[in-house]
Design goal:
- By secondary structure, the protein is an all-alpha fold.
- The chain folds into three domains: about 210 residues, no CATH class; about 90 residues, no CATH class; about 120 residues, no CATH class.
- The protein contains 17 helices and no strands.
Length: about 425
Amino acid sequence: MSKLFPIPLQGSDSSEVESLPSYIARIAYQHGISIGDIIRFAYAHNDSDYRRSTTVYVEPEEILQANRTTAYLSSSLEKCTGQSLEQATLMWLTNVFGRSSNDIVKGFRWCPECLSEMESLGIEPYFKLKWHLTCVRYCPLHLVDFISICESCGCDQTGYSRKFSVSVCQQCGQSLAKRMSKIECKDVHQSWSDNASDIQKLFSDMAETDFKTLPSGGVLKSFRALVKWCRDNKELDRLYHVLGKEEVRLLAGSQWAMSLTTVRRISYKLGVPLYTFMNGELLEESKCLELNRSSKLSLDFLEPKRKDVHNHELILKKLKSSIDEFNSPPTIKAVARSAGISIGYIRYRYPVLLREIVQNHQDFVEKEHLHKIYVAQKMALSYFLDLQYSTSPKSKRQAYKEVKKVTNLPKGVIEKSIERAYGALYG
């Protein structure tokens, strides 16, 4: 028996399927509670051994990738709602690709025209799964750019509070189904420009199979079968011409899964649908490989990425210089952004420096917190003891108002300080 309302997943069994973050936002709104409450409730009703801290904020992009957190949360919600949610994530890509960076956009993106059409058709608005993919640059239906923040107030819609439906800004109540500026001809993209048509075809092919999980190792199986076929038919030179001799040998002998970008590039150059390639059926379904195929379009994913060669000594100097620019001990994220490098690079190359940055910031935050407590407690005692407040009522509520007015400190800090002062004086 479902423990939450059995709200259906929008666009199921189609390439326009809803994403899991959108679904969670919708059911949170329907239940009149926050997204955090929905997640905690779902976690509490899952018998799995895997547990993730429910006190940590979960970003939308974190529950789309093929990982344990996504699998755990979707299975928990399936038990609570009685709905199948496999299609709402990218779990069907489990073990298909290697780790790919920046394949999923951070937060939400939406097409106002799509949301407007949903409203006019009486369909509850939702955010589509394909809108979360970086390679889909603009709306495939209306050929206009996505929007990622409310044009009225700048809210990115990633907060846990859900006061309105997903087509309405959660902060200011402005409709997300309307653009602030009217669409002009120059704003419409050309239909033949690159907008991940191969990914959109993949979504259509997956919808026909109810988004059945693709087999592990399907990509390598297809690629190795291709290399064997070319070798047996004396076509290796043509394959080398298309993909490059070094890359063919590297990928054929590798035990690691390829990235999404690599698979897209190879699939496009061979003229093979992504689904066929990923399913391990490249030769079974495509007997005529287009090894002489060439593209006149400029597609970003066709050229292999070159590994950057870092000057480690120069980067270390830049890191230390970036740290000195801050007025207070910065976070590791702020340092990495200032230096223009990744946190992963710092963690791998300079682990001691990373620990030092993190520890210094934590010490600074703790010191600041203690200072706030000291200021709040001093002001609380002053309210109860000083002559200037002698005529004021000695209540915790009135003390809170006065301390808040003078210090403007967080509510929790003030309340605890007043409790200590009141207990020490009036026991």
